[in-house]
Amino acid sequence: MRNSLKVARWEIRRNLKSKSFLISLISTPIIFMLLSFGSALFNKDSKEMVTVHVLDEIGVYEQIVQVATKNELNWNVQRTDANETEFPKLVKEQDQSAYIALTQEGLENGTIYVYMSQDTPARFLLETRVLEEPLRQQQLAQLELTDKQMSVIGKGIQMEAVSSGEEAATAGAGPDKADRMKKLIPGAVAGMVLFSIVMTGMMIFTSASQEKKEKVAEIVLSSVTTTELMQGKIIGYFVLGITQVMVWMLFLIPLALWKMDFPLLEYLLVPEMLVLLFIALTGYLLFSAIFVSIGATVEDMSSTSNFQGMIMTIPFIPVVFLGPLLSDPNGLVAKVLSFVPLTAPSVLIFRLSQLEQWPWMEIIIAIAVLIFSIWLAMKAAGKIFKIAILMYGKNATPKEIWKWLWA
Prior knowledge:
mainly alpha; D-Maltodextrin-Binding Protein, domain 2; 19 helices
């Protein structure tokens, strides 16, 4: 193990001195920040104040002001006594303005006309939808309905899916927004961790191939065994992946806290986060064992065969099943993929970030299958790596790799 750690330290130091790695390490969060600020810059008009003139013939002006304030709309609401026929002329003479005709005729017909100046932001018309509720209440009030009738009509009708089986008993309650965010945010962070360390795991593929091409492996293997070399690479690139995630977090968490209005850290510091991170770690160990062994079979990256190229797409297999996963995270397809080692890490993280109640028995079985698969993958990777790292002249064929596994 000591030699494996030495190899790991060597890989870490070598990559931290690499300009390409350092550039990607720093540039990725900076690009995210630039996109965020750039979006705000290009949508600058969305923050500009709009002067809203309201012709109120139905007595809802105060409610309009309250709704605009409650929804934090950039409206400067003012009452107007001008006639609706004058509105087209008035909006031409003013900038960033709009006239809303709240007339009795419009209320009865169900159509309220909004007159906007040419420079009024396009989002304004969408924002006026918040006025539908008070206007609807005013319509009902004029029908002289009883309080009970008003209450029933005001509630409206909504559709809610009820799952069959055991979940049906608790489906009516539904998670509130806070509970849902406690699942979504840890899931998103765990997914980012998995993606990041898997991407660094792919660097093992390049590293093993490059060392083989330059015959560096022969020098290294004079001091360590092939197993220690392979383990060292896996540990080293795992540390690099975690380092990458930590640097990204240092940039992105403050940005998220600034841009979002919910307690991000409170949602991250939950017990479920540990489970999700453990699943991400198992995914890395599985994929890295595959990458390091296949990387050793490649003579030259420029002549990588289709077989080796297909191996690199393994972590992205769940994308093929994105439709069924989105439509039913607890469906048959999602459950089956949770027990398939190559799809389990990402599918489990996705499912658990969507489900209100975690299926702990399924999680335990899936993790057990993953751990056993990692053991098999490491054992197989050791056999392949031991032979392939010192084989020169050509890429290994699938038939040869199969023979090495049973040697």
